[in-house]
Design a protein that fits this description.
Number of strands: 16
Number of helices: 18
Shape: globular
Radius of gyration: 23 Å
Strand content: 15-25%
Length: 439
């Protein structure tokens, strides 16, 4: 199989995870929202294999959104691969959007058993990792969770470079340079990141608002139509048919990122605020209906849910959690560009950056106070507050108080857009948010 030379930007965070499992038994499952770069990651892995001396004949790449494979089922897929494997050599199998193949999991399991193969698959819906698939491959797959571009990746994809310089006061600062040597303040690029988001396709069209909105419209429409409204057709279960209710729930969640939200309250709020006319619907949506629609949005990686954690009791709580949207540009496409809730927008950015850095993230509860994020991984824990500014005395106290109430010795940080602020209070670090993102 002949492959063209792909002209791709690096996504080393994810590529290194794939390389770590190269030639290992687990099936590599790459998940994430549509257009976040899963196909490109596969192509980066193919480039890596070729650089390591793997021949074209040992690599098979199939994108099931292509008409070439439109009518394939598990049997025809199996026979297609069987005819192309080379005896005595390992075959590297790449299946993009594999969930489009009926009973695909049977074929994947057979490849693992019957052939000397290394398998990589992608999917844009968490249904890919359903209990059925887990049963077939129990303990034999590893999930690589992809997200849209980080701020550092956004800078790189748009052909900017970060360079350090010393300010007149001797502080080490960062500037941004474009390909022509023009200088930009790093906060200018961060504002563009907040506004346009991190979908990789933006780099192909430039930071032009009208073009970006068109791109985001296409992504949103594809997610709603293919991954949500049609998803139950593959399950044979009751379908999500009320596209108007789905749209209003999407708008509600996008408008309430970072706010305490319950499934029960969503339907009530939609009715109380006049977003749903009970007279037209006959009744407000049932809790189970709202749960199903929100579940579909979580499965399609549009929104992520974060639970509350009792820091003193060391246990997760069933009380109100929060939702964050996977991309700030997608939110601006839905709600319009506005500046009224920047605090929650930058909080949204921090949440996904913590996920990229490998943390499990929860909301912290300490007494009757709340810590924005408790970030935990095997050898590390951090307590993090996020605020646009610490300038007002009441804001400073609001952010510091819950952190002061935590009695253990793990790192406590407040991330803020402020600069030239005191670096710490009673051992609590005050860190500039943009510096933290590029640090």
């Amino acid at each position: 199989m002949i492959f063209p030379k792909f002209n791709l930007k690096n996504r080393d965070l994810y590529l290194n995870k794939l390389i770590a499992f190269q030639d290992k038994e687990p099936v590599k499952v790459i998940t994430g929202i549509r257009r976040c770069g899963k196909s490109s990651l596969m192509k980066l892995m193919i480039q890596h294999l070729k650089n390591c001396g793997i021949s074209d004949e040992q690599i098979i790449f199939m994108n099931f959104e292509s008409m070439e494979y439109k009518n394939m089922d598990s049997t025809s897929l199996y026979n297609y691969i069987k005819d192309r494997v080379i005896n005595g050599k390992k075959t590297y199998l790449f299946f993009d959007e594999v969930q489009k193949v009926e009973q695909w999991q049977e074929a994947i399991n057979s490849f693992r058993v019957d052939f000397q193969s290394d398998i990589y698959i992608t999917g844009s819906n968490a249904y890919l990792l359903s209990s059925e698939f887990s049963t077939y491959l129990a303990g034999r797959y590893v999930e690589i969770k992809m997200l849209p571009l980080s701020f550092v990746e956004f800078i790189d994809f748009n052909n900017y470079t970060i360079k350090d310089y010393r300010s007149p006061t001797g502080e080490l600062r960062k500037r941004i340079y474009d390909a022509n040597g023009e200088i930009y303040d790093i906060e200018e690029l961060f504002e563009a990141y907040l506004k346009f988001g991190g979908m990789p396709g933006i780099a192909d069209i430039g930071l032009v608002q009208d073009k970006i909105l068109t791109l985001l419209d296409g992504i949103y429409s594809t997610i709603v139509v293919r991954d949500i409204l049609e998803r139950e057709k593959r399950r044979g279960q009751k379908q999500i048919t009320d596209s108007d209710l789905l749209r209003k729930i999407i708008m509600f969640l996008a408008d309430n990122i970072g706010n305490n939200t319950s499934i029960t309250s969503i339907g009530n709020t939609l009715v109380n605020e006049g977003l749903i006319d009970e007279g037209v619907r006959k009744s407000k949506p049932a809790v189970k209906t709202v749960q199903s629609y929100v579940g579909a949005l979580l499965e399609s990686y549009v929104f992520y849910e974060i639970k509350r954690f009792d820091i003193k009791g060391k246990d997760y709580l069933r009380t109100l959690g929060k939702y964050y949207i996977v991309d700030s540009g997608l939110r601006n496409y839905l709600l319009g560009f506005r500046d009224v809730d920047r605090g929650h927008v930058i909080e949204n950015v921090v949440y996904f950056e913590l996920l990229r850095r490998g943390y499990d993230v929860a909301i912290g509860k300490v007494g009757n106070k709340e810590v924005d994020f408790v970030a935990t991984k095997a050898d590390d824990k951090k307590y993090i507050q996020v605020t646009e500014t610490m300038a007002a005395t009441e804001t400073k106290e609001r952010e510091l108080t819950p952190l002061k109430m935590i009695r253990d010795n793990y790192e406590k940080i407040i991330l803020t857009m402020d600069r030239n602020f005191v670096s710490s209070y009673d051992g609590i670090k005050i860190v500039n948010l943009v510096d933290w993102l590029v640090g």
